[in-house]
Design goal:
This protein is mainly alpha-helical. The chain has 19 helices and 10 strands. It has a single domain, classed as Serine Threonine Protein Phosphatase 5, Tetratricopeptide repeat, CATH 1.25.40.
Length: about 450
């Protein structure tokens, strides 16, 4: 039996929060001014390490970077909703560099990175024995998984899209691998960031159990799914497919939208249950800026119109907010919190796209249709999607990727890689008579870092 900690875990959590705060503020002076407290406990046992990793508030919940999602094209704001935002949020919505500070995506994600680093360091002083080997491996694998996940999501947000020619010079994020906050933060290249992500996730895959005790914990399936995503963004389709198929060995289940134990009535406010059968690893998007929250935002009208009337996602994912639509299709059992973890539907889409790139068009369409049929009204004959050639297959798969994975923190990174391949997608925001655009080659696709981090570390800004 496992207890995933939602509240702070006794004095250990207090200790880690204190250390994390010092890391994020990077203030040695303030640290030295903190009076010692005999009640603070330094974690030192394997159980302590696992307890830190099981603290969902530090590792899973509302922590995944969301600035990219707030900058994407799956939603829009009415003039009234825009005017109700803060100046910082308005600037973010219209793709203007904005001087934002703690708390933010950077501080939230690096809290998890810090926690992971601390756990890895603690494990160095804990002997791995035959009696504790499975627990020790799970703890190390989990710490490596968390670090690689947040490194990937931060890199996809603050670095330009990967390509072999330029990513060795393009700036990525700070690859912090120590809990020592005195170690200076230095931005690594996008290429080096990906190499570290792959290194961590690959090692995690060898250490983690096949299945987790709870989907808030990582597993082999989660590590393989993360590598599937990572190599897809690197345009390495054969390797991405390899890890996709590996992940699907552990879980290939899909919900049947015609009726499933993980679904309520599709017309209900929150129809999809939390921890459903498609969830491989559970995480949630942060609420950074509040630009695209479900209260303010409305679904892009062309996107909504692209769902066939017999596509049950049209009912499961959206509710009317006349004259537009609001998104409600979260895997969080919440109308206000977005899912950002790893799930099988993403794997089917990764598999289909990789197969198409590798010229297996029949396999690509077969995989795509397995997913789409599970979303189709069963009282109406399902017509399988077909493709005339490779480019047609990739286009159709990517259309379905957008329709299935909206509001999961993936669209902005997808737009980057599509434009890197020459898709020439121009984003537009319309506010009354004003039109704002984001060009496909804009440097703004590497979103700005927090102002206070730039000031305290001296790292270059995007």
């Amino acid at each position: 039996m496992i207890e995933i900690v939602i509240m702070k875990k006794n004095n250990i959590a207090i200790s880690i929060v204190l250390c994390t705060a010092m890391l994020l503020t990077l203030s040695c002076k303030k640290y030295l001014e903190v009076k010692s407290n005999a009640k603070l406990v330094i974690p030192h046992t394997l159980s302590d390490v696992q307890g830190l990793l099981d603290d969902a508030n530090l590792m899973n919940l509302r922590l995944t970077p969301s600035f990219g999602e707030a900058s994407s094209d799956d939603f829009f704001l009415t003039v009234n909703s825009y005017n109700a935002l803060s100046v910082r949020a308005q600037e973010a919505y219209t793709w203007k560099p904005t001087p934002y500070r703690h708390a933010n995506d950077w501080s939230l994600a690096y809290t998890s990175v810090f926690n992971s680093n601390l756990c890895l360091e603690l494990l160095e002083s804990i002997d791995r024995t035959p009696a504790n080997s499975s627990q020790w491996d799970n703890a190390k694998g989990s710490a490596l998984f968390y670090r690689s996940f947040y490194f990937l999501m931060l890199t996809n947000q603050h670095g330009l899209a990967f390509d072999e020619k330029n990513s060795g010079n393009d700036l990525g994020i700070a690859l912090r691998t120590s809990s020592n906050f005195n170690v200076p933060s230095v931005r690594s290249s996008v290429s080096d960031c990906y190499q570290k992500i792959i290194e961590d996730a690959t090692l995690a895959l060898t250490l983690l159990p096949d299945y987790p005790q709870h989907v808030m914990r990582p597993s082999k399936g989660a590590a393989a799914a993360l590598l599937s995503r990572c190599f897809l963004y690197r345009h390495e389709y054969e390797t991405s497919l390899k890890y996709t198929l590996e992940a699907l060995k552990f879980n290939s289940k899909l919900m049947d939208y015609n009726g499933d134990s993980d679904l309520l009535a599709l017309s209900s406010t929150v129809p999809i249950k939390k921890f459903n059968k498609e969830t491989i690893w559970y995480a949630e998007l942060s609420s950074n800026f509040g630009v695209n929250n479900t209260t303010n935002s409305r679904v892009d009208t062309a996107l909504y119109a692209s769902y066939n009337i017999n596509d049950l996602r049209r009912t499961a994912f959206f509710r009317a907010s006349a004259p537009y639509q609001q998104f409600k299709g979260n895997y969080t059992a919440s109308g206000t919190i977005y899912f950002s973890g790893l799930a099988t539907d993403e794997l089917y889409l990764n598999s289909a796209e990789c197969k198409a790139w590798l010229n297996d068009l029949s396999g690509a369409m077969e995989t795509l249709n397995i997913l789409l049929k599970s979303r189709w009204r069963n009282t109406v004959p399902f017509s399988p999607v077909t493709a005339t050639d490779k480019s047609d297959a990739i286009r159709k798969i990517r259309e379905e990727r957008r329709k299935e994975l909206l509001m999961r923190g993936l669209r902005f990174a997808d737009l980057k890689r599509y434009n890197k391949e020459g898709a020439n997608i121009i984003l537009r925001r319309v506010l009354g008579s004003q039109v704002f655009t984001l060009a496909p080659d804009s440097r703004y696709y590497a979103l700005p870092l927090p102002t206070d981090i730039i000031e305290s570390t001296g790292m270059p800004q995007n």
